[in-house]
Amino acid sequence: ATPMSVMVGVGKAAEVGVLIRNGAALQTASRISAMILDKTGTITLGSPKITDVLPLGSFERQHVLRLAASLESGSEHPLALAMVASAREQGITPGKLSQFNALAGHGVEGEVEKHKLLLGNEKLMRERGINPDKQLETVQALADEAKTPMYLAVDGQLAAIIAVADPIKPDSVDAIRRLQKDGIRVVMITGDNRATARAVAAKVGISEYFAEVLPQDKSRKVQELQMAGEIVGMTGDGINDAPALAMADVGFAIGTGTDVAIESADITLMRGSLHGLADAIAVSKATLRNIK
Ligand code: ADP
Ligand code: MG
Predict the structure, then answer these.
(1) Ligand having the closest approach to the CA of 239
(2) Are 22 and 266 in contact (CB under 8 A)?
(3) Whose CA is nearest to atom 8 of ligand 1?
(4) Catalytic site positions
(5) What is the pLDDT of residues 237-264, one digit of tens each?
(6) What family is reported (predicted)?
(7) Which of 97, 130, 165 is the last residue of a domain?
(8) For the chain, N or C: smaller number of CB within 10 Å?
(9) Are residues 246 and 281 in the same domain?
(10) What's the CA gap between 242 and 264, in Å, rounded?
(11) 57: Cβ–Cβ under 8 A, 6 or more apart, which residues?
């Protein structure tokens, strides 16, 4: 395309809240054959709420919620913010956190009032020799409802199952359908567990998803699709997504996402809505038509 038609395209996109940082990306967008969408904060709102607190054994509800919130006060993960906010709403004051460790893709660990705490997914529990088998049925039922279940262990003992749910953005279903109608293969990617991923994907009409992907492995999934011959668009909002956004043929950041994601992307969706993707692709196609 001529510089002039690219400028016109960039301007048209801006009118609908799509910021194009690089003209080459505008031209590549028309050729995207596969679009990878991050789950949390991209398809969903990214502000999960606690839905279930299930204390185990002799542990009590208020106690486990307080311990979990105390531990999560050390983390900036959306799940952690949900936990801390929920506890506060219920009048719970977190205890003092000493020692804290974020375990990427797994959860968090730390010490609160002399208790060693571990909070996270099944993989984390197994890695620490804690057997969650008795809870698997309960956890599966929560995940089938598109909730994210977490295990809390106190001094090496399972103390609670805590689940959160992150609402899907109201227009994600329509926006995804638009991409599919354009003939684009839409794939969801998430660090979340397989069952939750399957449930969320089903709700938004996506049949292909990568689940339990460690943060450092997201960009590899982009490469896998590229090596299979796809022109890959990647859409994400998190620090986790930055390498994948940079690797993709066209990276799209959610405007409400982290600065790192925005800096790594070619295009920013200022309105947060996934409709910006089909809008950008339409502008791209119009731009190329103009010059033929
Ligand atoms: P995503 O952003 O897609 O949820 P992450 O890699 O950040 O992926 O997290 C993957 C999983 O690790 C989460 O679904 C959760 O089970 C666990 N996890 C990560 N961080 C935390 C945390 N702060 N508290 C509890 N669990 C966590
Ligand atoms: Mg995200």
Answers:
(1) 2
(2) yes
(3) 191
(4) 38
(5) 998 999 999 999 999 999 988 899 999 9
(6) Belongs to the cation transport ATPase (P-type) (TC 3.A.3) family. Type IB subfamily.
(7) 165
(8) C
(9) yes
(10) 6
(11) 157, 158, 159
